[in-house]
Amino acid sequence: MKYSMFIGRWQPWHKGHRWLIDQRLNENKNVLICVRDMETDKNNPYTPQEVKANVEKELNDLILSQRVKVIIIPDIESVNYGRGVGYNIIEHFPPQNIKEISATKIREKQKK
Fold first, then answer.
1. Whole-angstrom distance between the N-terminal and C-terminal Cα of the chain?
2. How many domains does the chain have?
3. Which of 3, 23, 95, 105 could bond 32 through an S-S bridge, CB–CB 3.0 to 4.6 Å?
C-alpha cells in the first residue's frame, strides 16, 4: 500500500494541518504523517510522543480505516531524492484563511 508522506512538527495539530492532508485524502490517497523527533523548547513544547498521540486522537477514524498512519522519524535537515525514484514531490497551496493559521498563536492561547 502506498502513502503520501507529510513531514512536520505538528505543534499542535490544527485545521491547517487537516486541510493539508485532506488534499491527498480527497484524491483517495493514503497519508503517512511523520512527526520529527525534536527536543522540546519554546517553539516545540510537546514531545514527539505527545504529538503522535494528539494526531492519532484527532484522526482516529482515519487510522482505524488504515487511510492514515502516524510515525515518529529522526529529525531531518533536508529531503533528497534521485531521478526516477518512483514517487512525486507535490507542493500544496492553501487558501488564505488556511495559510493564516499560526501554530505559534495557537500555542500562546494554550498557555493562557
1. 43
2. 1
3. 3
